[in-house]
Write a structure and sequence with these properties.
The structure holds 2 protein chains of 2 kinds. Chain A contains 15 helices and 2 strands. By secondary structure, chain A is mostly helical. Chain A has one domain: ABC transporter involved in vitamin B12 uptake, BtuC (Orthogonal Bundle), CATH 1.10.3470. Chain A has a two-stranded antiparallel ribbon. Chain B has 2 domains: 217 residues, Rossmann fold (3-Layer(aba) Sandwich); 133 residues, Response regulator (Rossmann fold). Chain B is built from 15 helices and 12 strands. Classes of the chains: A mainly alpha, B alpha/beta. Chains A and B meet through helix 3 and helix 14 of A and helix 6, strand 7, helix 12, helix 13 and helix 14 of B.
């Protein structure tokens, strides 16, 4: 029987694997997308300076905030759906369209009532989505995508595929015409002549969203549902209620966005909101929320929204063509998502 | 045992029912082309009554009735903004190309010669397919199928006008909407061919794909009409006639007026239509080349394609204003609704009322912006007139009248002074 010879000069095994975690990774993991936002701001300042302009000029800041205001409004609600582990709400485009249509259609009742009806349509859509996905366990993507189609069909049949103009729908009375004008003005109002009402509404929605997410029992339950649905269920949490609530919040936020959208383009139409399902999901993911749910933050989502707007702004300053812009946006977004994933993995979170 | 018997009984009932249903459906569905053709052909007779059954020389009384209907429709049918819906088309002489397509492609973007094959439907007529001859028996009772490109408020307006115009000249129509999907449109082409209508009109989803679509229709012996969207030159070999707007001409006309208003100086930026489509080239490079040729001191500052979302356009324009400052004197838009709203909002936010904005029109939003002076000018492109010209051309074909292979709807430049003549807007 041959004897095995140990040639290792150091009999005790030494683990030489690198255990030190790069400080940059830790920093990025703590600050998340805001590191990118700051980097983009610095880059924007340099590029603006080279071009003889000012990045922090009132008009430029206004431009960035306004450009992302509608997306931001929707994202403030979409984060709940993603956080709950339901990936995306594909019915966002037609929720926005429906809210606009309902608001314009009921403009004769006065602006506040029309606004309430528009918002109510969002709440109803959220309830239906929540019931089907939370209670009946429908696949969230397939259901919301199918529901989006259904809503599209309903709008086209009911309004004959036409656009609705508030001033045309409004009766020939001063009250109705004022309501129509008020409706149009909400996307054109500047508080103090500088900050647009749309941007303020977006920030307010994010503040409310942050409060719900961080300071309420619903927010705590949502974290558990998103992290582990089964564990949450066995802990006695009414998961159906939590999921339903997440869809109601999402659709209500989408309805707010839809009403402002219709007011901005002065017409309600079934095509309002097209593409918002994916562009908003991009912002939510950029903000560090995981597609599988259970991780992310409202503040991070706001960062994702701002990063989206600032990047567009910088690319316009540089003067890139449309195709190049798309390519650069794609590369930057992929890089952000990769850094997010990498830092999570390094810290053993992912 | 009872269950087994019941199962056998049920199966037998289902088989018999299936056979009966099958027979029934084969009777109904056995609408092979010939059967349907017979049905279609019998329609004029049925609608035309006794007179249609005994056609006189040269098409007979159905033709006479058709001509009378046609004349009445041309005289009375109006668009919602008060213009004749069935106005005759406009034709243009095609100048000779200054080189082959490959040679022209190498020219500078600001050279109008580069865009010759984009601007003109300049195809090799010697390669034309054999088109079905006109029946010359009148448009009354003819059935046509119109395959549009996709759902949009414009398309709704177009479809309604098309139906209205068909009814006015005694034709019937079906309209299929593939919702912007190429393969669905291809499917509708096959379906339409199987239904053997008297003519098929198509607004192609893609200009590049159109040649195959029109070849199929023409090969099936059905006259094919291309509507609204121009196609590649090779597709025209299979198109009986093209009708639609002359985007290049109307944008050049608009650019002429803009250059004059700018006194031939300053910078212009362009917001385009969807990249790659015919309006993209026409509405960007039409005015760009016109200004470069007639006003060499006017510079192109930037060309961007942010799409049709007002907020996205607003950001691009706001960024232009910040970046180019006073150099930015004018903006040319491919659309007078969302793009115009975004642009005007950005200009207002920056207090730059000196920037002139022109756009391809005409929507309600655009008309209101012209009325308020926020939009300096826009072109007139009648949606209902587009549908009307398509119906007119088809009707003339059925009536045995010689039709132009290419005819365009009329255009105009709309400004604050004459905008009232073009309202209420069509869609």
């Amino acid at each position: 029987m041959s004897e095995q010879v140990n040639n290792n000069p150091n009999p005790a095994k030494v683990d030489t694997r690198k255990t030190e975690i790069n400080k940059g990774i830790i920093l990025f993991n703590k600050l998340g997308i805001w590191v990118i936002v700051v980097a983009l701001v610095v880059m924007g300042m340099i590029i603006a300076m080279v071009n003889g302009g000012s990045f922090f000029g009132a008009s430029n800041v206004q431009s960035i905030l306004e450009a992302v205001a509608l997306q931001g409004m929707v994202c403030s609600g979409l984060i709940y759906v993603v956080y709950a582990g339901n990936m995306n709400d594909m019915s966002i485009p037609l929720t926005m369209a429906m809210a606009g249509m309902m608001t314009v259609q009921s403009i004769n009742l006065g602006f506040p009532i029309a606004l309430a009806i528009g918002l109510l349509s969002g709440v109803c859509i959220g309830l239906i989505n929540g019931f089907m996905i939370g209670k009946l366990k429908a696949n969230p993507i397939i259901w919301t995508w199918g529901f989006n189609l259904l809503l599209s069909g309903i709008i086209r049949v009911v309004w004959g595929g036409k656009q609705l103009y508030a001033d045309s729908v409004a009766a020939d009375t001063e009250y109705a015409q004022n309501a129509a004008n008020t409706f149009y003005s909400i996307s054109r109002t500047y508080i103090g002549g500088v900050i647009s009402l749309m941007a303020i509404v977006m920030l307010v929605l994010f503040a409310i969203s942050w409060f719900i997410h961080s300071k309420t029992s619903f927010g705590q339950k949502l974290k558990l549902v998103g992290t582990s649905y089964e564990a949450a269920r066995f802990s006695g949490i009414n998961c159906t209620k939590v999921v339903t609530m997440s869809y109601v919040l999402c659709s209500t936020a989408a309805a707010v966005g839809g009403i402002f959208y219709a007011a901005l383009r002065k017409t309600a139409s079934y095509e309002n909101g097209t593409g918002y399902d994916f562009s908003c999901l991009t912002c939510v993911l950029l903000g560090g929320t995981l597609l599988g749910g259970g991780q992310g933050s409202v503040v991070g989502t706001l960062g994702g929204v701002l990063a989206y707007g600032i990047l567009n702004n910088i690319l316009s300053w540089i003067g890139l063509g449309t195709y190049t812009k798309y390519a650069v946006q794609g590369v930057v977004f992929l890089a952000i998502v990769w850094i997010n994933t990498y830092s999570e993995r390094k810290l053993g979170k992912g | 045992m009872k269950r087994k018997s019941l199962a056998i009984l049920l199966s037998a009932v289902m088989v018999v029912a299936g056979c009966l249903a099958g027979c029934g459906s084969s009777g109904d569905d056995s609408t092979p082309a010939q059967t349907q053709e017979q049905e279609q052909k019998s329609e004029p007779a049925a609608e035309g009554g006794d007179e249609a059954e005994a056609p006189a020389e040269g098409g007979g009384s159905n033709l006479d009735e058709s001509l009378a209907l046609f004349d009445e429709a041309v005289a009375t049918l109006m668009t919602t903004d008060g213009h004749p819906m069935l106005a005759p088309g406009v034709t243009f002489d095609v100048p000779a190309a200054e080189g082959t397509a490959e040679e022209l492609e190498a020219l500078d973007d600001s050279d109008s010669a580069k865009w010759h094959f984009y601007e003109y439907l300049d195809w090799d007529e010697s390669q034309d397919a054999e088109f079905p001859a006109s029946p010359a028996d009148g448009c009354k009772g003819k059935h046509v199928i119109m395959i549009v490109h996709g759902a949009h408020a414009w398309t709704t307006c177009f479809s309604e006008a098309f139906e209205q115009a068909c009814e006015a000249v005694g034709m019937t129509c079906d309209i299929y909407d593939p919702n912007w999907d190429q393969s669905t449109q291809d499917g509708y082409i096959d379906q339409a061919i199987n239904e053997q209508p008297d003519a098929i009109g198509v607004i192609p989803v893609s200009a590049d794909h159109a040649a195959q679509q029109f070849k199929k229709i023409t090969d099936a012996g059905i006259p094919a009409f291309c509507v609204n969207t121009t196609v590649n030159a090779d597709a025209m070999n299979y198109v009986m006639a093209f009708t639609g707007p002359n985007d290049w001409y109307q944008m050049r006309t608009l650019a002429d007026s803009l250059g004059e208003a700018m006194n031939g100086e300053g910078g212009v930026a362009y917001i385009t239509h969807n990249v790659g489509g015919s309006p993209y080239y026409a509405r960007c490079y039409g005015p760009l080349t016109e200004l470069a040729e007639k006003y060499p001191n006017i510079k192109t500052l930037d060309i961007q394609s942010p799409g049709f979302e007002a907020a996205a356009v607003k950001q691009v324009v706001a960024d232009w204003i910040t970046k180019h400052g006073d150099d930015l004197k004018a903006i040319v838009l491919a659309d007078d609704s969302d793009q115009a709203i975004g642009t005007v909002e950005a200009i207002k936010a920056a207090n730059r009322s000196d920037i002139l904005v022109v756009a391809a029109g005409i929507s309600k939003q655009g008309a209101e912006l012209v009325e308020s002076g926020d939009l300096y000018m826009m072109s007139y492109q009648s949606c209902q007139g587009d549908a009307g010209l398509a119906v007119r051309t088809m009707a003339e074909y059925f009536n045995g009248v010689d039709i132009s292979r290419v005819s365009y709807i009329g255009t105009d430049v709309i400004n604050k002074d004459n905008v009232a003549d073009f309202t209420p807007c069509q869609w």
